[in-house]
Amino acid sequence: MNATNTRQNTLELIGNTPLVLLESASEAAGCEIWGKCEFANPGSSVKDRAALYIIRDAEAQGLLKPGGTVVEGTAGNTGIGIALVANALGYKTVIVMPDNQSKEKMDTIRALGAELVTVPPTKYADCNHFQHVSRRMAEETEGAIWAGQFDNVANRRAHIETTAPELWEQLEGRIDGFTCAAGTGGTIAGVGMGLKERDENVRIALTDPHGAALYNYFANGELKAEGSSVAEGIGQGRITANLEGAPIDTQFRISDEEGLEWVAKLLREEGLCLGLSSGINVAGAIALGKQLVAEGRENPRVATILCDTGFRYLSTLYNSEWLKAKNLPVFDWLGEG
C-alpha cells in the first residue's frame, strides 16, 4: 500500500489539492500563473476547507454535540461542504440559500440529505437576507449551531493553516503574488496572512467582480459598489470578520465578460471546466502577473484559486438561453440554443 496516497478517513480528502500551471494564462501574463485545483475537494469546491474547520471548531468549543444540527446561509458551495462534513460526523444539516443560485447547487444539497430552504435575494440590511434567516433558524432549533461563515474566523484559519502552507510547499517557497475574489473573505485573508508569515514580499491582490464594494474600499477607503455580476459566491458589500486585517496590497476589478472569456479559454484549450468565479480569479492573476513583470520582478510566479467545477453551472453559464437573457456572450460551441 502506498502510504503517501492513502487517507485514514474521508475528511482527510479535504485539502492537499493539486496545483496546475495554466499555460494560456501564463502566456497572456508573461509569467507563471498557477491554479489551485479546489474542485478536487470531495464537495468540488474550496468551501470544503471552511466547512471542516467551522464544524471542528464548534465541536472543540462544546457547541456542537452528537446528533446536533448545523445551520448555514450560503450561496451553495459552503452548504455542500457542510452537508458532506456533517454526514461524515453524524450531524444533520439545514441550508438557507437565495433562490437565484444555480439549480445544480440546490439539487446537490437536497441529494446530500440536507434540508434546503430558499429565500428571495435581498440586501444584507434586510432582516430576510439569507444569512439572517439562517441565524434565526439556528437559534430556534434545539441542538443546532449557526455556522456563520462570513464572520466565523475558523473559516480563514482553514486557509492560514492549510491552503497557504500547501501553496508555499508546492511552489518550493518561491511565490511572488496571490490573488482571488472575496465572498466571505476567508480565502483571500487566510491565504494572504499565511503567505505573508513566510515572505512579506508576496503581493496579495483582491480580485473583485463588478457589483461588489471591496475594490473601492481597498482602492479609496469607501465601501461603494458599481455595476453588477452574475458570479455566484463572490462579491461583498461589507468588511466581514474574516476580512478584518486582511493584508491586501493591491486590487483589480474584473468584469463577467472577461471572466467568461477565461472560462471558455481554459475549457477549450486546457480541458478545465470551471465556474465564473474561477475565470474572474484567473483574469485577476494575469493582471497581477503583468503588474509584477512591469515592475521588473524576474520570472514572477502568481497563484490563484480555481474555486469549483463548471458542472455546478450547467443550467446557467453553460446554457445559451440563460447567457443571452443576461446579455452575456454565448460560448461558440453552445450555438444559439
Automatic annotation (TrEMBL):
Cofactor(s) needed: pyridoxal 5'-phosphate
CDD domains the record matches: CBS_like (cd01561)
Alphabetical UniProt keywords: Amino-acid biosynthesis, Pyridoxal phosphate, Transferase, Transit peptide
Entry's Gene Ontology molecular function annotations: transferase activity, transferring alkyl or aryl (other than methyl) groups
Matches recorded under Pfam families: PALP
Any GO BP: cysteine biosynthetic process from serine
Biological pathway: Amino-acid biosynthesis
NCBIfam families: PRK10717.1
PANTHER family: CYSTATHIONINE BETA-SYNTHASE
Protein name per Swiss-Prot or TrEMBL: Cysteine synthase A
